[in-house]
Each structure stands twice: as structure tokens, then as C-alpha cells.
Specification:
The protein is of the alpha/beta class. The longest helix is centred in the middle third of the chain and has 34 residues. A hairpin with a 2-residue loop joins strand 14 and strand 15.
């Protein structure tokens, strides 16, 4: 008798650091994620790579190809501030017509496709989830928003909020083909997405229940603004009073104790820039208290996300669908370490807006009318032993936690160990071919419904998963997914990298890097601490040639210094508000607020 097609549940955390879950060494309570990782057939991946920013990763997750091809060459929030990237192929700011999305293919193949959470792959109605294969969808359209759906009452709503906050405040959602006019009074992002996912699963018709499902649950937590229910925040009171350096050491030791990093690993030193807080002990007490509180709220966001994951898993167990569900949990990039307050000019404007419209007093941090992030030092505690964090194509920006729980075959004899760990290198582009193979479907290759598309660049994990099932658990660490000749390119925000086998070149812009290309053996030096460019000149030149090939192949504009400086939140000289949907977020779905001169372009 043929095995039934598996269900898929894909859970994505937003800006979650490598060690932010209990099963990856965290003190944060994530019992539901940890339980998935402890299943006898579950696997934790310690060498899984994504793009260093959210929508680029999500575009690769959906398509199996490079984000510079799929339409999210950069964050749309960055592209709107960069004249060099605007109008360039692959930088449209939405999933373009050169790609076919996974839910489209699964729907064509008989799957029931649903999503609840952050989309970030297009604002206009023609780019919404329902147009890319989802039967039901409740989607946050921008890249981040107030987690409680709160918006201040602006003095001048026609010109406010500040350009930086245009894309970071309003919780603009669409359900199926309609903008959500008003969110419930008790809205909290993670709770809403978990509950909506259960609603979509429970509301399936008898006919829909006969189909396997693809459920996409991309949270917007723990992305800033850091906000969480007070009762959850209170669980972490006092956890972080020793500061980020101490947390980093504790996390590193737990990673070693759990066998997730090597005992002799050389972690990259913390990088501090001018204008950012320096040593913890040198900070004033009130600054330390607010910083620790921000981290407490961050922990609570992860905790609450886990609680909602547990609700969905419990539902699947109650309905008997869990065993046949392939569960995948991942982060979309490394921890967010931006310190916007330290940026010249923009920082002053951002902080002035926050002071005017929000209450960031110690006792109010985490509430709906607060607006905080936690900065570069807490982020580097979460990405250690790797270098840096989100927006850098270093290991800290691109190496993220991944847990998978394949379907359980009743014919299989469960292994005695509680989950496995693999060091096999793989990328987010592998998910599309993996899911298609498991579903018994094929990617259409270069043509889909009469239009030309690009093929997938990823590789199916099917053979790897089969090998793991039949292998001695102790031998799992030797199994590979990609061979030594496999090449992967990375670039986000002017930080580039290219990996071939164990070798990697990386470009980290100033001031956090040397503004030049470096060479590392990331198997021996995953912390990227020893630049081998001078000692391996032939290899370095070969890797640079591969970079130039990759850059031309996918359409990378360049690394920092190869195009005019662009600062997210600033307006470029070429700005055209009629071609800038991210400037319309405050008006979309609100016909009464749309200025007269934009009424012909803003969707309502």
C-alpha cells in the first residue's frame, strides 16, 4: 500500500539567534520546540545557512532559488533608499514572475495550502499570498510592525510617521483577498498567528481534509519592536542583569556541553562600534537596567512564540495528523544587532520620533506603546561563536538554527536516541526540492503555466534523510548533503560572501569590518577569526573569480563601496512616491486617509 503524501508544517522565527532555543543552548524556555527536536527521528542542523536578512531568505524558502533572482535582491526597505538598486532586475521588492512559489506547486499537486504570519514578499494585491498558491492566508504584509497593532496618534498623519517608521509601525494585514480593516482589541502577533493557523486547520471541509496540507507559520517575533505580555516578561526578571558578555560565555559553554559546537572552537570577539554602549560594567545603572529589560522582553517573545507553536502541535496530535507531518523550524537570519540610535543623523531623527510618541520608561518597556530593540551586544551573545549578526554575510548573519521532524513511518523501527545532530552544510534553497520529492511532485524546470521561470538551485535532502534512517546514529555526523565543489553565494546590504566546500570568502563593510575581502576555512575556523587571504593567494583568487561569476549570474549590484552609500530610512535623490508602495503602508486599506494625489495608485 502506497504511503500517504506527507503534510508539511513550516515554522519560521523572525531574527532568532543561533542559541536562542533551549535545544540550542538557551536559558529561554522553549519546551515545545525542544520536544520537536527530541523526537526519535528529529534532526538539529548546526550548519544550515540562509540570507542575512528576512525577505531575501523567505523568497528563497518559497522558490528554491537565489533571492537576487526571485525579486528580493535586497530588503525592499533598503532598495527604496538606494538609487543603485531601484529598478534593477531581481530587486522588485516582491516575488517576481521569474519564479514559481512552493505553495503554487503543492496546490497544483493536490495540497491544501494555508498560512498565518509574516509575508514580506509584496505589498500590492497582485503580490499577496493568495496570488502565490495559498488557499487561505492571514498575512502581515510589511517586514515588521507593532506586535499589539498599536499606532500612535500623530500630530500630522499626512507626513508622519518618519520615513524609517513607515515600514515598521502599522500592523497591516490581509486575509485572503481583503485588507484587514481593524485588528481585535486583544491582538498580539504570535497569539494571532497561532490561533489563526488552528482555525484554518479546523475549518477544513470534508473534501479538504482528504488532501495533505502545507501549513506555513512565519512569526514576526522576536523582531523589534520588542513587545510581549507582561506575565511572560516577568518570568525572566533578573535573568540578564550580568549583561551580554556573561550571557555569551554561558551560551557558548552550553553549546559545547551539548555537542553543538567543538570544544576547542575559537569564537569571534565581540565587535563594538563608536556610539554604541561599551563594557557593561562601565554603563550607568539606569542604562544597564533598561538594556537588561529589553533582553527580558526579547526572551518573553521567544517564549510566547514557543507556546503558540505548542498549541498548533497539540492540535495536530489531537487530530492524529502529527505523525504524518514533516515539521520544520528555522530562523530567517541571524539575530538583529542594529543600533539605530548610533547612526549619524538618522539616529537622532529616529530617537526624537520615539521620544515624542512612545514611552520607553523602564516599567513600560515591552508594552504596546514602547519601542525598543536590544542592540549589537545581546545579538552577538546569541550568534556566538560566529561573527556579527543580521545584515552581514558572516556566519553570524547566515548560520541559523534548523530543526526538522520527518513523518513517522509505522514500518520504521524508532532509533533509541532522542533526536540527531548533523553538521552537514545545507541552505534554505534546499527546502523546495526536498518538499517536492517527499510529496512525489516535480519542479516544472524552466516553464510554468506559459511563462519562463528559473529552475531551483537547491538540492533535495531526500537521499540524506534516507541515509540517516539506515545509519548508525554515531555515523550521522559524517553524512553530507552538498559535495565539496558546491558553490553558494551570499549578499545583503553590501556584505557579500561565497562558499565552496569548507572555504569561504567574505566582505564585511566598515565600520564593523575591514571593507575588503577575507578568506576563511570555516570548518577549522567557523568563528572567522583567521584571515588566510595572504597565505592562500591562489585559492583566494580562485574564490574571487567564482564570486564574480556568481555576481553576474544572479544580478548582485555590488558590495559596499561599489555603489553610492544607501542608509535604510533615508530618501534617495531619485525617490518617486508613485513607485514606492512601502510609503503607502499607512494608507493601504484606508480609503479615507489616502491623499488625493495618491488615490490612483494606493490599493484600498
Amino acid at each position: 500500500m502506497a504511503k500517504p503524501a506527507p503534510n508539511f508544517l513550516v515554522i519560521v522565527a523572525d531574527d532568532l539567534g543561533f542559541s536562542d532555543c533551549g535545544c540550542f543552548g538557551s536559558e529561554i524556555q522553549t519546551p515545545n520546540i525542544d520536544t520537536i527536536a527530541s523526537e526519535s527521528n528529529a534532526i538539529r542542523f548546526t550548519n544550515y545557512h540562509v540570507a542575512a536578512a528576512c525577505s531575501p531568505t523567505r523568497s528563497m524558502l518559497m522558490t528554491g532559488t537565489d533571492h537576487h533572482i526571485a525579486g528580493l535582491g535586497e530588503l525592499a526597505e533598503f532598495t527604496r533608499s538606494s538609487a543603485a538598486h531601484q529598478g534593477q532586475p531581481g530587486h522588485e521588492g516582491y516575488l517576481n514572475e521569474r519564479v514559481v512559489a512552493l505553495p503554487e506547486l503543492l496546490k497544483d499537486g493536490g495540497y491544501h495550502t494555508i498560512m498565518a504570519g509574516k509575508w514580506h514578499l509584496g505589498l500590492k494585491p497582485q503580490h499577496h499570498p493568495i496570488q502565490r498558491g495559498f488557499v487561505r492566508s492571514f498575512a502581515l504584509l510589511p517586514g515588521c510592525a507593532n506586535h499589539y497593532g498599536y499606532e500612535p496618534q500623530y500630530d500630522d498623519p499626512e507626513v508622519e510617521p518618519h520615513r524609517f517608521f513607515e515600514t515598521a509601525t502599522r500592523a497591516l494585514h490581509v486575509e485572503d483577498d481583503k485588507f484587514v480593516k481593524e485588528l481585535p482589541e486583544d491582538f498580539y502577533s504570535s497569539d494571532a498567528y497561532g490561533s489563526k493557523m488552528i482555525s484554518y486547520l479546523s475549518e477544513r471541509t470534508a473534501e479538504e481534509k482528504k488532501k495533505p496540507f502545507f501549513a506555513y507559520l512565519p512569526f514576526s517575533a522576536p523582531h523589534w519592536p520588542l513587545q510581549a505580555p507582561k506575565e511572560v516578561v516577568d518570568k525572566y526578571k533578573g535573568f540578564y542583569h550580568d549583561g551580554p558578555d556573561e550571557l555569551r560565555l554561558k551560551r557558548l559553554q552550553r553549546l559545547k556541553d551539548m555537542g553543538l559546537v567543538d570544544e576547542d572552537i575559537q569564537p569571534h570577539p565581540i565587535i563594538r562600534c563608536e556610539g554604541e554602549p561599551q563594557r557593561w560594567a562601565d554603563m550607568p545603572l539606569d542604562v544597564r537596567e533598561k538594556s537588561a529589560r529589553a533582553m527580558e522582553v526579547y526572551a518573553a517573545m521567544v517564549d510566547r512564540m514557543d507556546w503558540n507553536i505548542g498549541k498548533v502541535i497539540d492540535y495536530l496530535k489531537e487530530t492524529g495528523e502529527y505523525d504524518n507531518t514533516f515539521v520544520l523550524f528555522m530562523s530567517d537570519n541571524g539575530a538583529e544587532g542594529a543600533s539605530y540610535e548610533a547612526q549619524p543623523i538618522l539616529g537622532d531623527e529616529v530617537m526624537a520620533h520615539i521620544k515624542k510618541y512612545y514611552n520607553n520608561s523602564l516599567d513600560n518597556i515591552g508594552r504596546k506603546d514602547s519601542f525598543v530593540w536590544y542592540g549589537s551586544q545581546w545579538a552577538q551573545a546569541a550568534t556566538a561563536p560566529s561573527r556579527l549578526f543580521k545584515m552581514y554575510s558572516t556566519e553570524g548573519g547566515c548560520r541559523v538554527p534548523l530543526i526538522i521532524k520527518p513523518p513517522v513511518s509505522h514500518a520504521e523501527t524508532p532509533r533509541l536516541n532522542t533526536g540527531s545532530v548533523t553538521k552537514a552544510y545545507c541552505t534554505v534553497m534546499d527546502i523546495v526540492p526536498t518538499f517536492l520529492e517527499l510529496a512525489g511532485l516535480k519542479h516544472p524546470g524552466t516553464s510554468y503555466k506559459g511563462r519562463e521561470i528559473v529552475p531551483v538551485r537547491g538540492k533535495s535532502w531526500g537521499p540524506f534523510l534516507e541515509a540517516i534512517k539506515s545509519s548508525d546514529p554515531m555515523a550521522i555526523s559524517t553524512l553530507k548533503i552538498h559535495d565539496e565543489d558546491h558553490v553558494t553565494g551570499f549578499e545583503v546590504g553590501g556584505s557579500g560572501a561565497l562558499r565552496k566546500g569548507d572555504w569561504k570568502i567574505v566582505f564585511v563593510p566598515a565600520p564593523r569590518g575591514p571593507q575588503k575581502w577575507e578568506l576563511f576555512n570555516v570548518k577549522e575556523d567557523p568563528g572567522e577569526t583567521k584571515d588566510l587571504r595572504e597565505s592562500e593567494p591562489v585559492l583566494f583568487e580562485k574564490m574571487m573569480r567564482l564570486w564574480e561569476e556568481y555576481k553576474k549570474d544572479v544580478g548582485v549590484i555590488g558590495v559596499a563601496g561599489e555603489y553610492p552609500t544607501a542608509i535604510q530610512g533615508e530618501k534617495p535623490p531619485t525617490h518617486d512616491e508613485f513607485e514606492d508602495p512601502y510609503g503607502w503602508i499607512k494608507f493601504m486599506g484606508r480609503p479615507e486617509r489616502v491623499p488625493e494625489h495618491l488615490k490612483h495608485v494606493v490599493p484600498v
